[in-house]
Amino acid sequence: MLINTDYLVVGAGATGLAFADALVAEADVEVTVIDRREAPGGHWLDAYPFVRLHTPSAFYGVNSLALGEDRIDQVGENAGYYERATGDEVFEYFAEAAGRLTKTGLVRVLTGHEHLGAGSDGEQIRDLSTGELHDVAVRRKVVDARYLEGSIPATHTAPFEVAPGARLVPINDLPAAAESGSSYAVLGSGKTAADACSWLLDNDVQPDRIRWIRPRDAWFHDRSHFQPLEQVGAIMEGISLDAEAGADAANIDDLFERLEASGRLARIDPAWPATMYRGTMLSARELAALRQIEDVVRLGRVRRIEADRIVLERGETKTGPDVLHVDCTALGLNNAPATPIFGPGRIVLQQVRHLSPCFNAALVGFIEAYRDDDADKNRLCPPNPYASSIEDWPRMMSRTWRTEGRWLSEPDLSAWVAKSRLNLLRALPDHAAEPSVQGTVTRYLTHISAAIERLKRLDEDTALSVRPGRSTVRS
Ligand SMILES: Cc1cc2nc3c(=O)[nH]c(=O)nc-3n(C[C@H](O)[C@H](O)[C@H](O)COP(=O)(O)OP(=O)(O)OC[C@H]3O[C@@H](n4cnc5c(N)ncnc54)[C@H](O)[C@@H]3O)c2cc1C
User: Fold this and answer.
1) Beta strand spans in 335-391 (E)
2) Which among 221, 265, 324, 408 could disulfide-bond with 259, CB atoms 3.0 to 4.6 Å apart, if both were Cys?
3) What DSSP designation does 288 have?
C-alpha cells in the first residue's frame, strides 16, 4: 500500500500530537502520525499506576483541546494548586485529541505502525499486527517526534545485576508487590524515586522502613511557582527569581545557593550538595514528607543486588530477602544533543522554551505553517536540550530568554504565544495590574539583560572545562 501525505510525524506522544494539532489549525495540509505503540499518548500508555502530571493540566496536551477543568485541588499534597491529571486521564485525553484530529479529515493516526526509515519508494513503515511493509510518499517533511523519547520504568532494563533471591520490581509493580516487603529500598535520584517514596509514605509505611539509594541529590522546583491562570503571578515570580539569581551569580554553586535562598529551588537534604537538575517539581508538603526518610545511601550507582548486600560504585550496603527493591533508575527525559529543528525535508522536535514540551511542539507547528525559510525558522526555534545537571541550567535559561526575545519582534508569533493554552504565562496580561505581579515583572525586567549575559558566560566557562556530550549547536 502507498500512503501519500504532506507530513509524516513519527511518534504519537504528546509532542507529535501537539505539533500535528497546531499545524493543521493553521495550514491546509495532510498529516499522517504513526506510532509503534497500540494507541496514541506515547509513554503515558506504560506509566506507573499512581503517576500524575508534574505540572497542572491547564497547560499540558494539545492546543485545541483543554485537559481537565482548571479546578483547584482542595485536599492532599496538591491542595491549593491547579489539578494535575492522572496517567489514565492523560491517556484518555490523548485518545480524544487523536480522535478529534482524525475527524478533521486532515490527520491520519496509525498506531501499531513502526517507522523503519527511508526506503527506495519513500519512507517505510511496518504494520506491527501483520508485519506488512508500506511506503509513505511524503510531499513535505518527515517530523521526528521521538528524538527525545525518554527511558521509562516499564520499558527500561535495570542496568545492574540482580542475584536469584533478591527481589526487584519496577515502580509500576509497587502497588501490587508492596505488601510482600517488610522494608523497601528505593533506587534512583529523580522524580520517579520521589514518587515511589511518596506512595509508600502515603500508604502508611513508616519512614524508617524506607532506604533511599540516591547516586546524586537533585534540585526540585517548588510547585507553587508553576500555577497558571488565577495564580499566574506565582509563575512570574519564579521566573523573576531565576533572572535575579542569574544576574548576580558569581559561579554555578553561587547560582544555586541564590536559587535556594529565594525559595525557587529546594533539595531534599539542604545539608548535602545537589548536582542534578531535571526540571522536576515537588510541593512543600511532598518535600516535607520526603525529608522524613533518613536512611539515604550515597555510594554511587547500583552495580549488583545480591541476596544479602547491594554493591554500589563506591561501597556496599546490607539488604535481605524481606527487602523489596524498587527500580526507579530509568533515565526519564532524554537530554540528546541539540540538532537543528528545521532542515530540508525534516523537522526534529526538541525543547525550545524550558520546561514546556507541548508548547514547544505546537510552536514548531505554528512556525512551520507561517515561515518559509529554514534559517529563519531555526532562528525562532533554536534547540535547547533538556538539563541533566546544574551546569546545564545557565545554558537552558539564557537560551530560553534570548529566544523569547526574538519572538517579541514577530507580531503573528507573539499573538499566537499570547493566546496558546499551552503557554503557562497566558493569563499574565489579566493580572498585570496587581501590585504583586507588577513587582515580579519589575524584578524580571531589572535583571533579565544582565542575567542573559552572565548565564551565557557561566555556560561558556562550563564548556571550556569540556564536558563530553555537550551540545554544539549554539543560538
Ligand atoms: C512520568 C512523567 C511525567 C511527566 N509529566 C510532565 C508534566 O506534568 N508536564 C510536562 O510538561 N511534561 C511532563 N513530562 C515530560 C514530557 O512532557 C512528557 O514525557 C511527554 O509526554 C513526552 O512526549 P513525547 O512525545 O516527547 O515522547 P513519548 O511519549 O515518548 O512519545 C514518543 C513516541 O514515539 C514512538 N516511536 C519511537 N520510535 C518510533 C518508530 N520508529 N516508529 C513509530 N513510533 C515510534 C514511541 O512509541 C512513543 O510513543 C513527564 C514525563 C514523565 C516521564
Assistant:
1) 342-343, 346-348
2) 265
3) H
Compute, in angstroms, the gap from residue 128 CA to the centroid of ligand 1. 20
Helix (H/G/I), strand (E/B), else coil: 210: strand
Give yes or no for a contact between 360 and 338, defined as CB atoms under 8 angstroms apart.
Answer: no
**Quick one: CA dihedral 19, 21, 26, 32, positive or negative?**
positive
- Rg of the chain over Cα atoms, rounded to whole angstroms, equals 23
Would you say the CB of residue 149 lies under 6 angstroms from ligand 1?
Answer: yes
Taking the C-alpha atoms of residue 158 and residue 152, their distance in angstroms, rounded to an integer, is 11
Q: Residue 359: CB within 6 Å of ligand 1?
A: no
Q: What cell numbers appear for 220 in the block?
A: 526540585
How many A from CA of 475 to the centre of ligand 1?
Answer: 25
Dihedral of alpha carbons 22, 23, 29, 30, sign: negative
Contact between residue 217 and residue 279 where contact means Cβ atoms under 8 Å apart: no
- Cβ of 383 closer than 6 Å to ligand 1, yes or no, is no
d(CA 261, CA 253): 12
* Residues in contact with 311: Cβ distance below 8 Å, sequence separation at least 6, in sequence order: 302, 303, 304, 305
Centre of ligand 1 from the C-alpha of residue 46, in Å: 10
123 lines ligand 1 (CB under 6 A): no
Helices 357-370/14-26 angle, 10° precision: 30
Estimate to the nearest angstrom the gap between the alpha carbon of 130 and the chain centroid. 34
How far apart, in whole angstroms, are the C-alpha atoms of residue 255 and residue 394?
9
Listed residue (448, 10, 395, 19) closest to 236, CA to CA? 448
Region of 162 on the Ramachandran plot (φ > 0 left; ψ -120 to 50 alpha; else beta): beta
Instruction: Determine the Cα–Cα distance for residues 297 and 129; give it in Å rounded to an integer.
Output: 45
Atom of ligand 1 nearest to the CA of 191: 1
Q: Which atom of ligand 1 is nearest to the CA of 332?
A: 53
Per-residue pLDDT of the chain (475 residues; tens, 9 = 90+): 789 999 999 999 999 999 999 999 999 999 999 999 999 999 999 999 999 999 999 999 999 999 999 999 999 889 999 999 999 999 999 999 999 999 999 999 999 999 999 988 899 999 999 999 999 999 999 999 999 998 888 888 899 999 998 999 999 999 999 998 899 999 999 999 999 999 999 999 999 999 999 999 999 999 999 999 999 999 999 999 999 999 999 999 999 999 999 999 999 999 999 999 999 999 999 999 999 999 999 999 999 999 999 999 999 999 999 999 999 999 888 889 999 999 999 999 999 999 999 999 999 999 999 999 999 999 999 999 999 999 999 999 999 999 999 999 999 999 999 999 999 999 999 999 999 999 999 999 999 999 999 999 999 988 877 554 444 343 3
Is the minimum distance from the CB of 398 to ligand 1 under 6 angstroms? no
Q: CA angle at residue 263 from 278 to 258, to 5 degrees?
A: 80
